Amino acid sequence: MIKITIDQKTVSVPRGTTILEAAEKAGIDIPTLCHMKLHDMNIENKPGGCRICVVEVNGRRNLTPSCCTEVEEGMMINTHSMRVINARRTVLELILSDHPAECLTCAKSGDCELQRMAHRLGIREIHCKGEQSAYRIDNSPAIIRDPDKCIMCRRCEMMCNEVQTVGVLSAVHRGFNSVVSPAFEKDLMHSECTFCGQCLAVCPTGALTEVDETTSVVRAISDREKVVVVQTAPAVRAALGEEFGYQAGTVVTGKMVAALRRLGFNYVFDTDFAADLTIMEEGTELLQRLNAFLKGDKSVKLPILTSCCPAWVKFFEHQFPELIDIPSTARSPQQMFGSIAKTYLAEKLGVDRKNMIVVSIMPCVAKKYERGRDEFYVDGNPDVDIVLTTRELAHLIKLCNIDLTTLPEEDFDEPLGQSTGAGVLFGTTGGVIEAAVRTAYEIQTGKALPRINFEELRGMEGFRKAIVDFDGLELNIGIAHGLGNARKLLEDIEQGKSHFHAIEIMSCPGGCIGGGGQPYHHGNADILMKRQHALYTEDELKVIRKSHENPDILKLYAEFLGKPLSEKSHKLLHTNYFNRKAE
Amino acid sequence: MTKTHIFVCGGIGCRAMESEQLRKNFQREILVRGLSDEVQVVTTGCFGFCEKGPLVKILPDQTFYVQVSPDDAAEIVSEHIIHQRKVERLLYIDPETRKRVTESKDMDFYKRQFRIALRNCGVIDPDNIEEYIARDGYSAIAKCLTEYTPEKVIDIVKKSGLRGRGGGGFPTGLKWEITRKSENSQKYVVCNADEGDPGAFMDRSILEGDPHSVIEAMAICGYCIGADKGLIYIRAEYPLAIKRLKRALQQAVDTGLLGRDILGTGFNFEIEIRYGAGAFVCGEETALIHSMEGCRGEPTFKPPFPSVEGYMGKPTNVNNVETFANIPVIINKGAEWFSAIGTEKSKGTKVFALAGKINNVGLIEVPMGTTLREIIYDIGGGIKDGKKFKAVQTGGPSGGCLSEKYLDTPIDYDNLIEAGSMMGSGGMIVLDENDCMVSIAKFYLGFTLDESCGKCAPCRIGNKRLYEKLDKITSGEGTMEDLVRLKSLSLVIKDTSLCGLGQSSPNPVLSTLTNFYDEYVAHVKEKKCPSKQCKDLINFTIIEDKCTGCTLCFRNCPVEAISGEKSKIHHIHQDKCIKCGLCYSKCKFEAILIE
Rounded to two decimals, what is the model's pTM? Predict the structure, then answer.
């Protein structure tokens, strides 16, 4: 243990502790801007670039950044001397002097870490005004980059390179002109960006934000010609409440449904229903491939990879195009829902698909990109018309003067509203594969599951593996969240080293609960843990917890699709992938 | 009969003045006159006295010819070589005595120098390993490998008091010791040859003139720290240095002085060259390492120091070219010999690139503790055109400008820092009365502004704001409050920046504010530039009494801002004048006034 003194308080901390962490232990909250640490997830950004966290250490010539300076025995630290406060304020003023003062109209207003820091440090005037950076705004279907607002904290770069290994965002140019951008300042749309949105999930300012489509929803709802249906993804209900003052991990499903109804949607459905449908298709595909493989069919490749996550799909299309026949061909729940809504539901309601607007509420920004993919259009009409993130939904609810907290709890509409506990699990890492196992086990073995919870598939480790006993047949299962972890699994497959039968991959750390469209976690990993816990609780509370027992799903097959992997299913619920390496 | 050698300086200054053609002409003359057996023409590294280049030295009589043009080759061969008569007109003239000086050792420029790092520059053919070996080359590595333990060598380097010549001044032996103690099966020796200061060419000259000294020292370092791999990070803009280095590496490998089982001792060491793209910040060791790793060249916070976690995460010892060049001599002559040179805390010598408004521009090496006055006046020959000395900028773009009161300060690491400047890698630029100190500060800041990596906020934005303020002042728009802000902002940038670049970039501003405050005030309060350099603060007018109406100014003005008829007084129209100064330089009657 190392003994140090911070602001006259003496603390003992283990070797390797930073001054920032030691101060936290002493109850001293040193302000930080570029630093971000997701505890227990092995994700940390500490370039030591913003210099806001500088402190004075006795005997050192210069101020030192507390986020990346490790403690040394006997250190005497002052976190708020005149010299420190002056330096901290001056540096923040410098950062603000190169930042557009557009707070009133900024997407990040009210949730901006820079704004909060300016308030905290009591900045009332910028003494060193001068030229401001002026870059072009980069619009994509999912993410907007406004580099003028970039403060070079490099969090996005760390997420994009170290965590996701996508490698699109990095610092370019030098000195005052340096900014984080795709190489050669290409647009994101022309890069290998997966639109996972982890960059904007960690951006402290409005430099990276999602494309705001709330107005399109208001317009659609106002159009009397249109039947507007909405689906809500599993992870949304576990996070939406945070925008309305609820504790993280509070599930607000019923209130959310009530709010959507009050917003004027004609039908409020559940993506969890589509998740159950995904399990029917993907689970059946898994068994088909598995059984053929076990019979020695050399044309069948394993492992099968999940395909619900659009960022993950784009990732392997760019990075591992030679493996595009490995993932399941099942569309994501969002797209399955859209497809079923505009066929089965439209038929039932007697509505032309062109007069039906399908809106998705997603924890994700990649879903905005996914819905626009060519293969999800029929005669020029998309299966899903508009995608809102959890944050956008919160804005929309507030825009429409609805107080979520006072709303009653209501149920989803029929016939695409009923779902199982398995469907709910789609929102967390490990959830899709657990849902698949529940169904696949019973179909494969013809026996009832001895237990429903598969603890061995749960957790927050970036890469997990488990063996599930299918009544004597041992199924090797891999789980990865974060594309960097996925890359390792894919490299193993490429080199023929993989022994897995099935692998679940989600792009975002934690899965969809940590999606780029969720309320900002501001570096607090506890929030993700609580959202995950909430989904498992929601599953426990469900009467039906296996997808193949969802009566509405059974009805859908009976009335419309026939059986899983039928010709109709293939047409409506499956897809194919593209080699995007050349792009 | 002793063979005659004609040494032609192959340094960059002389090459720019056709020394390569001169060498070819010498060779042709020798061939034509059938002297090939008796006379050998050799291209050497930099002689140092660039001001008087191209330089030629004839051995064995040591005759030193200056400003030799390619056309002079024939005369030198026929007169000096064949008829044994010195070509008087090509001998150096001592500015004091006005007498011709035959040998370099009698020239003021060389007299006060003491060459350790530059010992072989201009003395040997850098492309010939045998010439290096003939001057004790590779005897130090042999001694280390056969007689000394690594600890013993480190001890010698520590005792010598050698400090890093790249600017930081960290004790070299201590650095080696720390790297030795960092346990790892793979370690690296890195030579920092990313010399980027404007006007500096110390490292370049060593690599061009004596590449083997660096190679030998790197191998010694590898032996000491337990590394079998060396990397030289050199800027790609140094093609000649790269060419000579490559040849030297090949020769060392071919001779068995690099590679496996060197001198049969079982010690393996190989060296690879890595190219830098010319980013100034890559001279900072962590940025350099990142650049070599293929990452963006920007520094990271230390600790961990490279000696613990460096290239590819392995312990890495980074030393600058000049530091390495000192090592073989220290081993051969001993720590005591070396530590007897210099001052208490700065031992040995330092190479400086003398530039600016000084008579003898060139490369010099002097013992630590030599005063600025000795360098500028005795070696440098004083200020050009008899102008008045104003300041000397040491330490490269982020060093400080020292005024006259520091002329008698003995130069060493600590004194320079105390004076508000720094040693840096050894750039030394002399300024005279015509230089505007505000503009000079702006010039240097402009350089660091371009070269900042942009990683930390104070350097990225702070330097930009400083620059803008200086621009405001030189445009006559500055206020006294700006002067206060300049200082306070400079101090915060120094105090909070991530690496040495940002921590020193405000030095030109702070040192000029301290030493030349009146000049700033004149710009702000009187809206005048005392040195008459700031265009926005000066006007060109014609002194009517002196104007003869020769029309020369009228004809030369590029913007038709001058009117007047032949034999009549001319007039400059201020609204059109762009202050290019052409009229001033063309006027034969000193009739143009700048005020």
Answer: 0.93
